[in-house]
């Protein structure tokens, strides 16, 4: 089973602690009920460098499977990328 990686980090506004806690709780609950078919791994990046983290991971061929939240600037920056 290959884990599904999720990059969580706002590209324009910092994530709030409650948002991070909610993401972790969701992943824990999801993994508890779906562990035989998929494992969700969270990668939490601070808003200040989330864009650069994502850009670096895409360039290295290691893009996350799930990305969010992403604002319009961030989304448009990666449009047409062959890595995602």
Q: Separation of termini? A: 21 Å
Poorly predicted tracts of residues: none
Write the CATH fold name. D-Maltodextrin-Binding Protein, domain 2
Helix content: 40-55%
Taken as a percent bin, the fraction of beta residues is 15-25%
Q: Strands, helices and their partners?
A:
Layout: E1 4-8, H1 17-34, E2 40-44, H2 50-59, E3 66-68, H3 72-77
Offer a few descriptive terms.
84 residues, alpha/beta, D-Maltodextrin-Binding Protein, domain 2, three-stranded parallel β-sheet, 3 helices, globular
Tell me what you see in this structure.
The protein is α/β, with parallel strands linked by helices and 84 residues long. The protein has one domain: Periplasmic binding protein-like II (D-Maltodextrin-Binding Protein, domain 2). The chain is built from three helices and three strands; from the N terminus they run E-H-E-H-E-H. A three-stranded parallel beta sheet has the order 2-1-3, covered by helices on one side. Strand 1 (4-8), helix 1 (17-34) and strand 2 (40-44) form a beta-alpha-beta unit. The model has no long low-confidence stretch (mean pLDDT 77).
